[in-house]
């Protein structure tokens, strides 16, 4: 979610150069940003723990002389690193995550339901504190669509609409039940105008999606076959994506690909909706206990995950049909 803000920062301040500290596996996401250098943080090795945070500060200082430091994460490690920069005389600013108002949305009683400031705006606020106010154009294209990898292009059927389904999420409360998602695919594959692709991560998800591929001849499982860089190129070629409130929604948003997003314990009101996504494509049901979590990492206190189990499959299918004009 940092990418649209960083891109507009670079467009509006052509003299600015960025160094982004992030984990190496995420480097491909930032590669299209201009005047940007990437610095790897090795959180399980060199930069682990408090001593590692000091080493990260030292490594960054050796890389460049910075005029400002923007902490877009605001966790213990980044707090320590930015404090070291501040003590060394470098101006710093950090994201205000809005924990109090988010708690008002997720508490069990007397919820104060309203649209909160988006995370994109919260990131922009950090740069404003550093003297770089950004006029966010929330409809602007982020990245240009990319050419599909040659070994994937051979799978594409030119006359069909391309739909990517990413059915998993880090937390169970954010994931549509597997059997219900199977029903969605069963309904969608009846439409011969669609070509369906499946994407997950890890051994367990790959096995589930391989079984779906065997069951649904119109569905092609891409899990584990491509690097993140190639997956991004593939996502950019899609006509639409079905995703949970998860990373795949945001990756598709970078390329302007419309996403039918499915929301359970969380809610777009919390500020994590995809960049420039149509609000009509957010798929959820109204239920008194929702949202009950900011990130979907808290177990359902009702014990039945009704926000997902009561969301009808046909609601998702109808949104796909309408979006793609099938």
What does this molecule look like?
This protein is α/β, with parallel strands linked by helices and 326 residues long. It has two domains: 2-129, 3-Layer(aba) Sandwich (Rossmann fold); 157-324, Glycogen Phosphorylase B (Rossmann fold, 3-Layer(aba) Sandwich), CATH 3.40.50.2000. It has helices spanning 2-12, 27-30, 49-63, 76-87, 99-106, 119-129, 150-153, 178-188, 202-215, 228-236, 247-254, 306-309, 313-324; strands spanning 18-22, 36-40, 69-71, 92-94, 161-166, 194-198, 219-221, 240-244, 259-262, 282-283. The strands form three sheets. A six-stranded parallel beta sheet has the order 7-6-5-8-9-10, sandwiched between helices. Helix 1 (2-12) packs across helix 6 and helix 8 runs parallel beside helix 13. The protein is globular, with a radius of gyration of 21 Å. The chain starts with a helix and ends with a helix.
Q: Assign the structural class, choosing from mainly alpha, mainly beta, alpha/beta, alpha+beta, or little secondary structure.
A: alpha/beta
Order of H and E elements: HEHEHEHEHHHEHEHEHEHEEHH
CATH fold name of the largest domain = Rossmann fold
Give the neighbour order of strands across the main sheet. 7-6-5-8-9-10
Shape: globular
Terminus-to-terminus distance: 30 Å
The largest β sheet comes out as:
6 strands, parallel
């Amino acid at each position: 979610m940092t990418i649209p803000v960083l891109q507009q920062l670079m467009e509006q301040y052509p003299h600015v150069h960025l160094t982004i500290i992030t984990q190496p596996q995420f480097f491909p996401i930032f590669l299209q940003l201009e005047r940007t250098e990437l610095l790897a943080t090795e959180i399980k090795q060199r930069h682990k723990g408090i001593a590692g945070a000091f080493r990260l500060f030292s490594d960054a200082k050796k890389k460049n002389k910075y005029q400002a430091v923007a902490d877009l994460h605001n966790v213990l490690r980044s707090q320590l690193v930015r404090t070291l920069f501040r003590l060394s005389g470098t101006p710093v600013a950090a994201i205000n995550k809005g924990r109090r108002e988010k708690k008002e949305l997720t508490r069990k009683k007397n919820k104060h339901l309203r649209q909160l400031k988006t995370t994109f705006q919260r990131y922009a606020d950090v740069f404003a504190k550093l003297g770089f106010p950004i006029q966010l154009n929330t409809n602007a294209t982020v990245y240009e669509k990319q050419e599909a990898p040659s070994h994937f292009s051979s799978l594409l059927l030119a006359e069909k609409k391309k739909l990517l389904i990413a059915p998993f999420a880090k937390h169970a409360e954010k994931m549509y039940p597997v059997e219900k998602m199977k029903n969605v695919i069963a309904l969608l594959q009846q439409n011969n105008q669609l070509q369906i692709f499946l994407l997950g991560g890890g051994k367990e998800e790959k096995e589930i999606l391989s079984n779906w591929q065997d069951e649904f001849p119109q569905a092609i499982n891409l899990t584990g076959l491509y690097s993140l860089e190639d997956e991004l190129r593939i996502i950019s070629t899609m006509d639409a994506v079905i995703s949970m409130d998860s990373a795949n929604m945001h990756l598709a948003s970078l390329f302007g690909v419309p996403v039918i997003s499915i929301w359970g314990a969380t809610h777009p009101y919390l500020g994590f909706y995809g960049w420039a996504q149509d609000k009509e494509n957010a798929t959820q049901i109204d239920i008194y206990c929702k949202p009950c979590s900011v990130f979907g990492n808290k177990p359902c206190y009702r014990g039945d995950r009704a926000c997902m189990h009561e969301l009808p499959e046909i609601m998702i299918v109808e949104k796909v049909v309408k979006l793609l004009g099938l």
